[in-house]
UniProtKB/TrEMBL annotation, chain B:
Signal peptide annotation: none
Name the record gives this protein: (2Fe-2S)-binding protein
Upper classification of the organism: Bacteria, Pseudomonadati, Pseudomonadota, Alphaproteobacteria, Rhodobacterales
Protein species of origin: Marivita geojedonensis
GO molecular function: oxidoreductase activity
Domain Vanillate O-demethylase oxygenase-like C-terminal catalytic residue range list: 91-266
Length: 200, 278
C-alpha cells in the first residue's frame, strides 16, 4: 500500500480538522498545534458523529457532539460529562499512517515501508476536484493502473491523485517554485474541463 | 406486515397547517391527508381510510390496528399554559436517532452552546431511569443540568431539572423546570413521523407557562435549538440507530439512551434500527 495525498499543508494549518476520503474510508484529517498531522476514521465511537465536524483543543481532537477528546494516539482521554473519570483504553478511534512532506499531507491506510513519493522539489499550488476516477485521470497522462502521483510535462507539474469515489478524484497540483502559480492554476482548470467534457 | 411497528400512532401533520389534501410518507408508504368540515382524514395508497386522532395540535394516524389509545399528557391541560405548534423539520436520519438525541443532555454545552449548556458546566450527575412496565414507557427522572438560557422565559443561568418520558417509539415528552414558575413543569415534546427508516419529519410541540414571550419568539427559540440538533443528526454514522451493544460506547450519562434502545429491542421496534454491526 502506498502513500496517497489527502490535502495540502497550507489548507490544514495547526488547529484545523477537515473531512477527506480514500475510496470507502472516510477520514478526519487534522493538524495538532505541535504541527503533527493525523488521519483518523471519521467517526466518534461514542455516538457515531463525524469527527471532521469536531474541534482541535490542545493536542486533542474533540467531537462536536459531546466534547469527547482524543489524544494524538487516537485514545479518548477526556469525557466532559464525567470529568473525574479516566476513560478506559478501549475507547479509541481507528487511526492511519499520516505524515506531511513537501507541503502535502500523505496517508497510508495500511502499514507501509514504502518511501514517500518523489516530488522533485516542486511545491504545492492548489487542489482541484475532478469528476472522474483516479484511473481515468491518470490514463489521460499515460500513467499506470494504480497511480498516486503522475508527473505531467505541461508546466512540469506533479499531480498527486486522491481517489475519493469511483467518480471523483482530488488532484493535488505541485509545480516548480519558479512556475507562475496563476498559469498553473489556469492550466489545471482547463485540464479539469477537458477531462469532464465540459466547456472551460 | 410487522404489527410491532405498524400498530402505533404516528404524527403526520400539524392540524393548523392543513389547508388542502396533501401527500406524505409514513413508514416508507405514501398516504394522503386532509380536512373536511373541520375533521381530519387520512387514506393509504389504496384509498382505504386510516384511523385518526387529533391531539396536541397534531393529526395522528396508524397504518395498523393500535392496541391502545394515543398517549395523553394530562399536565398539558392545566389552565394558563400556552400551546405552541413549533412547525416541522425534515431530517435525514433514522426517526430513532432523532428521539435519542432529544433524550440526551450531555451534548448541551457543545451543540447548544450558551443556551442549554456551557463549559465548564459539563458534568452529568447520576439520575434515575426505568422502564415502567405497567404503562410500557421509558422514564428518566431527577435529571439535573446547569443551563445559561433554559427557555425563552429564563432571565439567566439556572440549574434545570428534567424528566423524560418515551410513551411511544418515535415520541418523547420532556417535563422541565419552568423558569417563571419554579413549582411547575414546562412541557416540550418531540413527535417524530418516520417518513422512511432513514428520513423523518420532526414536529416539536410545547405547553409552556410564559406570559411574556410572543408566540413567534417561543417558536423561534425551539427552532434554533432543533436546527442545531439537525447538524448532528445528519452526520451520525450509521444513519440508523444501532440497538446491539458493541457498535457504540455508552457511559453513565447515556442511561436514558441505553434504556430506550433496550426497550425498542424488547418491544420489537426495529424500524430505523440497525441490529447487527455493519
Amino acid at each position: 500500500m502506498s502513500w496517497i495525498a489527502v490535502g495540502l499543508k497550507k489548507d490544514v494549518p495547526p488547529g484545523i480538522v477537515i473531512p477527506s476520503r480514500l475510496a470507502d474510508t472516510e477520514l478526519a484529517v487534522w493538524c495538532a498545534p505541535s504541527g503533527s498531522y493525523h488521519a483518523w476514521s471519521d467517526r466518534c465511537p461514542h455516538r457515531g458523529m463525524r469527527l471532521s465536524h469536531g474541534f482541535v483543543r490542545g493536542n486533542t481532537l474533540a467531537c462536536i457532539y459531546h466534547g469527547w477528546q482524543y489524544n494524538e494516539a487516537g485514545s479518548c482521554d477526556y469525557i466532559p460529562a464525567h470529568p473525574k473519570l479516566t476513560p478506559p483504553d478501549t475507547i479509541c478511534v481507528p487511526t492511519y499512517s499520516c505524515t506531511e512532506a513537501g507541503g502535502v499531507i500523505w496517508v497510508s491506510l495500511e502499514a507501509t515501508d514504502q518511501p514517500l513519493p518523489e516530488l522533485g522539489g516542486r511545491v504545492p499550488v492548489r487542489s482541484v476536484p475532478i469528476a472522474l476516477s483516479a484511473e481515468n485521470v491518470a490514463a489521460h497522462f499515460g500513467a499506470g493502473s494504480a497511480p498516486t502521483v503522475a508527473v505531467v510535462s505541461d508546466h512540469d507539474t506533479v499531480l498527486a491523485l486522491q481517489p475519493c469515489t469511483d467518480t471523483l478524484t482530488m488532484a493535488h497540483v505541485l509545480a516548480s517554485p519558479d512556475a507562475d502559480p496563476k498559469a498553473v492554476s489556469r492550466w489545471v482548470e482547463d485540464l479539469r474541463a477537458t477531462l469532464e467534457g465540459v466547456p472551460a | 406486515m410487522n404489527t410491532a411497528i405498524e400498530n402505533h400512532w404516528y404524527p403526520v401533520a400539524m392540524i393548523s397547517g392543513i389547508d388542502g389534501p396533501r401527500e406524505t410518507l409514513l413508514l416508507g408508504k405514501k398516504i394522503t391527508l386532509g380536512r373536511k368540515d373541520g375533521t381530519c382524514w387520512v387514506k393509504d395508497a389504496t384509498g382505504k381510510a386510516l384511523p385518526t386522532v387529533e391531539r396536541f395540535g397534531h393529526l395522528w394516524t396508524s397504518p395498523g390496528q393500535p392496541n391502545r389509545d394515543l398517549f395523553t399528557i394530562p399536565e398539558a391541560d392545566s389552565p394558563g399554559r400556552r400551546l405552541v405548534d413549533v412547525g416541522s423539520v425534515k431530517v435525514k436520519c433514522s426517526p430513532l436517532r432523532a428521539v435519542e438525541n432529544f433524550l440526551d443532555i450531555a451534548h448541551f454545552p457543545f451543540v447548544h452552546t450558551d443556551i442549554l449548556g456551557a463549559e465548564p458546566h459539563t458534568e452529568v450527575d447520576r439520575y434515575d431511569v426505568k422502564i415502567r412496565e405497567e404503562v410500557d414507557e421509558v422514564w428518566a427522572t431527577k435529571v439535573k443540568f446547569y443551563q445559561p438560557q433554559a427557555a425563552k422565559s429564563a432571565a439567566g443561568g439556572i440549574t434545570t431539572e428534567y424528566m423524560y418520558r418515551v410513551p411511544a417509539p418515535t415520541c418523547s415528552v420532556l417535563y422541565k423546570t419552568c423558569p417563571p414558575r419554579p413549582g411547575e413543569w414546562d412541557i416540550i415534546t418531540l413527535f417524530v413521523q418516520p417518513l422512511t427508516d432513514e428520513w423523518c419529519e420532526v414536529w416539536p410541540w410545547m405547553a409552556l407557562y410564559d406570559d411574556e414571550s410572543t408566540m413567534s419568539e417561543m417558536v423561534s427559540f425551539q427552532q434554533l435549538i432543533f436546527m442545531q440538533d439537525r447538524s448532528i443528526l445528519e452526520n451520525q454514522i450509521p444513519r440508523k440507530l444501532p440497538l446491539d451493544p458493541g457498535m457504540e460506547v455508552p457511559t453513565q450519562a447515556d442511561m436514558t439512551s441505553v434504556a430506550y434502545r433496550r426497550w425498542l429491542k424488547k418491544i420489537g421496534y426495529t424500524y430505523g434500527a440497525q441490529l447487527v454491526a455493519a
